[in-house]
């Protein structure tokens, strides 16, 4: 296996482009090794920077982790909005409402399709979510808040579909997470999109 050599004499990049480069390199490394296996030197090498140069952009290793997670959430929100044909999902999600023509089932299907096209990012979140169960993990609070937010949004969107919208929200989240783990472990024998469609037939029956 050839080990890539990263040069530090690259042309200077605009700040926004450099930050994106750092976010993407870090996401890839965490997906491969987990947060505890990540070194700032590896990120710096992959981006053609020194460690002090990297710290100038991100501040600290913990700060870099949170920045990567927020960056990926923003990217996913933009992609999901494009799939659903809407301009912005921030406001509709916050209020428990979706634009005309977009319902909870369609939104979930779009989420699954998005994830099926980016296994490395899904692996990144799966690894970090498991690691962050430890209260000492720097992303512990982030993932706890993210889970509660997702459940609240799903429940708000399910209020007209079920007499127990919170229960349906938990079932949806559990099914998505479980199917994704099975898919990541055996992608050759698991079709994530089809598995979700089969599950949705049961979860959304008579709804």
From TrEMBL:
Keyword ATP-binding included in the entry's annotation: no
HTH tetR-type domain sequence ranges: 16-76
Domain of life from the UniProt record: Bacteria
Entries under Pfam families matching the protein: TetR_N
Annotated keywords: DNA-binding, Transcription, Transcription regulation
GO molecular-function terms, A-Z: DNA-binding transcription factor activity; transcription cis-regulatory region binding
Transmembrane stretches, start-end: none
DNA-binding feature ranges: 39-58
Family matches, as Gene3D superfamilies: Tetracycline Repressor, domain 2 (1.10.357.10)
Protein name: TetR family transcriptional regulator
């Amino acid at each position: 296996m050839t080990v890539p050599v990263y040069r530090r004499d690259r042309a200077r990049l605009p700040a926004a482009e450099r930050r994106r480069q750092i976010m993407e390199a870090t996401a890839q490394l965490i997906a491969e090794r987990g947060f505890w296996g990540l070194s700032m030197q590896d990120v710096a090498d992959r981006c053609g920077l020194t460690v002090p140069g990297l710290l100038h952009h991100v501040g600290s290793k913990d700060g870099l982790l949170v920045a990567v997670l927020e960056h990926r959430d923003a990217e996913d929100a933009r992609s999901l909005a494009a799939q659903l044909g809407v301009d912005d999902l921030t406001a509709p999600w916050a209020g428990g409402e979706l634009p005309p023509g977009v319902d909870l089932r369609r939104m979930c299907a779009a989420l699954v399709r998005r994830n099926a096209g980016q296994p490395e990012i899904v692996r990144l979140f799966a690894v970090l979510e498991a690691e962050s169960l430890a209260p000492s993990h720097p992303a512990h609070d982030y993932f706890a808040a993210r889970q509660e937010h997702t459940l609240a949004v799903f429940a708000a969107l399910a209020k007209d579909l079920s007499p127990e919208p919170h229960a349906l929200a938990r079932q949806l989240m559990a099914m998505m997470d479980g199917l994704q783990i099975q898919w990541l472990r055996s992608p050759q024998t698991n079709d994530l999109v089809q598995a979700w469609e089969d599950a949705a037939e049961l979860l959304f029956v008579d709804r």
